């Protein structure tokens, strides 16, 4: 409950082990941990993993293709915008993303081409008034917004002839 905490521990030992497995996988496949990559010292309880940033990540690496659900960031280089959009869409998952650009119109154009259920421009957030939708193997359908209520509805059309 420390207000200075930015990222807390994994919810379970199994998830902590999963995140550490992704980190080991990244290192084994040739990614370079620029920071983190281990369990922080001084944490005798909980399932903490040091926030890890990977450089030298290629699109085929597991840490680039899968959802880690832990404090792991993979940096992939690209030369052209088309290549960046291809990298973003080259995954079996697409729950959320963020586009960073000094040109907001260009960022919006890129966002419309990234296959993700929710996307932010220069930040990421969710709103209960807007749908939060899954893509591909991510998530479990649609939450929030009017679209999120559809799972609870059972539409029916009733037709009758009106007599005069």
TrEMBL record:
Keywords: Oxidoreductase
Record-annotated membrane-spanning stretches: none
Tagged with keyword Lipid biosynthesis: no
Cross-referenced InterPro entries: Ald_DH/histidinol_DH, Ald_DH_C, Ald_DH_N, Aldehyde_DH_dom
Record Pfam families: Aldedh
Family: Belongs to the aldehyde dehydrogenase family.
Protein name, UniProt field: Aldehyde dehydrogenase family protein
């Amino acid at each position: 409950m420390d207000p200075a905490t930015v990222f807390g521990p994994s919810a379970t030992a199994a998830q902590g082990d999963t995140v550490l497995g992704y980190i080991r996988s990244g290192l084994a496949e040739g990614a370079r941990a620029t920071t983190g990559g281990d369990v922080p010292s001084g944490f005798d309880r909980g399932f903490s993993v040091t926030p890890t940033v990977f450089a030298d990540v290629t699109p085929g690496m597991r840490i680039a293709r899968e959802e880690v659900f832990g404090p792991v960031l993979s940096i992939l280089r690209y030369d052209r915008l088309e290549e960046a959009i291809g990298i973003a869409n080259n995954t079996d998952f697409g729950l959320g993303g963020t586009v960073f650009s000094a040109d907001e119109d260009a960022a919006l154009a890129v966002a419309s081409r990234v296959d993700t259920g929710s996307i932010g421009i220069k930040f990421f957030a969710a709103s209960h008034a807007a749908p939060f939708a899954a893509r591909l193997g991510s998530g479990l359908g649609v939450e929030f917004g009017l679209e999120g209520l559809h799972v609870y509805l059972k539409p029916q059309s009733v037709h009758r002839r009106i007599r005069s």
